[in-house]
Write a structure and sequence with these properties.
single chain, alpha/beta, 4-stranded antiparallel β-sheet, about 35% helix, elongated
Amino acid sequence: MSQPVLSKAGLDLAQETARRREGLIALRRDFHRHPELGFQERRTATVIAERLHAAGLEVRTLAGTGVVGVLRGERPGRVTAWRADIDALPLTETLALPFVSETPGVMHACGHDGHTAIALTLAEILAAHRRELPGTVVFVFQPAEEVLGGAKRMLEGGALDDPRAESVFGLHLTTLFPAGHVAVKAGPVMASADFFDVAIRGKGGHGAYPHLSVDPLTVAAHILIGLQDLVSREVAAQETAVMTIGQIEGGTKHNIIPETAWLRGSLRTYSAPVRDQLVERLGAFASRIAQAYRAQAHVELQGEHCPAVVNPAPWAGQVHALAVAEIGAACVEEQRPVMASDDMSLFLQARPGCYFRVGIAPAGKEAMPHHNPGFEMNEAGLEVGVRMGLRVLLYALQNEVT
């Protein structure tokens, strides 16, 4: 595989990344110390914009707290984009770190602090070598991934259109792999997501006289148990779907049968037809179970549908080859699809590209899952993320993959 232009010009990607290691880690820790929830990332966006301005990028804001930085190289080339998500989660951190979250009840527990630090470092390295840089890189710092709302607003605001990016890339740090390993796969790699509420209306009354009431909590219990059969008995065995009820609400006191109850849950699939089938069956099933108990049930989808993340085969294969060239075949994994969701899917629907994973599992201890208050990353993975980002972007600036 040919070396990227900047390597030919004397820039060693690994050496340049290593030189910036301390700054990369310090930047990640600063974001970790100051986490912000979706569409509230004001400090984060300010830091990003200031760093991009200082590096000489053209900077604009979108979607309230989103930031786009455009780096124009001084050599002819293509236009590509790099996306990073910047928001945190509503969790109280349990780790005793010197850079623990200083925001009560908010924590970076999914690696977005690392994503942001990696993207800024990529921008600063490439900006420092813009004379040798072929083409233009659009850096997209997206808010509100955790609520699956930021990507749509960034795209509607023209994040990939001014200038028009031909491809888009990004990475997700993961504790599923050892630090520095890279995982790539063509096809679906993350599930779609839909969130739904089931509102159940019965007839309230005294707990001593249930025969005079219609108990919505009993109806909710039967709907909850039965929903699992929609996946196990109505979805083909070779397909994949997960339906989870995450909240049950209803009632005010031990001896009062309430008038209403609610179930709130999520549906995740890799296939649009399977998703449509389950959405239809969810509504029909809940309504008819409720009718059997003389109650009423109505299902309502909440928020935007987030489609599955699907990597086009040509770019996934190329990123795999770039990973082997950069870090060696022994450190490149076959990425197994996960049922978590990510609105990077909307970027990949808008442009071809690839979303890959970089390992950050802590060494010598149990890795906590993402969205856990004890989530911890091995920062050695950050450097590999930067090296991979440089490789991928430089290749995309000089090559068309179809």
